[in-house]
Task: structure prediction
Amino acid sequence: MIDDEEKKVEDTTATAATTTVSSNTEENKNETTVEKALPVHKHTFNPLIGEVNPDENKDDDDELPEKAWYVINTFAMRERQVKEMLEKRAISYGMENKIFRIICAEYEDPVLDENGKPKFSKDKKTGKMMPKFKTKNYYPGYIFVEMVMTDETWFVVRNTPGVSGITGSSGKGAKPFPIPREEIEPVLKRMHIEDPDMYSDYKVGDNVKILSGTFADAEGTIESVDPTNSEVSLQITLFGRPNTIVAKYSEIEKIQENPNYNGGENN
Result:
């Protein structure tokens, strides 16, 4: 009796296994040769670029490129609006750790009358007569963005309303090249932005030129460097006598020596 029951169980198990194999065989018949060769991947939906394979173009923090500066082309007279829109998009897409400083190089220019004298207007709050200024841009049609270039940041920037292009991109979705350090330095200095990273190679004994302030265009030698306050002490010659002054990083520029200079000797 027991032997008969065990035999029935074995027959039932064998039948179920045969049915499963047959079912899998039928499913495999429906697969094409290409589908069989493809590896199995789980796809996720990225709100920036649609459905993506997590194993492809994955932004691993350990492998991210370094942050750099990029020049963004905008429509005329819309530089500030584009800057503000990009700042909002960076926050809404959670890109604050990849999109950093955004610069619209604006400045206030005095409004002059026909005689070249400043115009005045009454301040609505204080009632006092104040000089009139007009907002202008050092670089019309451009803003500058410091960011880590990835697929996501590239998508956010190029699809920001008002962006007409990005300098350094060959088009057709190609990512742009960052601008060299020596090209972004004048922009930051004009905006009086002190970036210690830009001056990491400044040292005692370097010859520099003062760009702004009372001693603009004067040349001097660095006597000490204060990275905490982004300042340097300079020795300059004033009325034929050496004087020591303090200048901000943004107020100086290293004097580049001519690498081709050979002291007037001919080779």
The helical segments are 2-30, 33-37, 79-92, 151-158, 181-190. Confidence is low (pLDDT under 50) at residues 23-61, 259-267. The first strand starts at residue 44 and ends at 46.
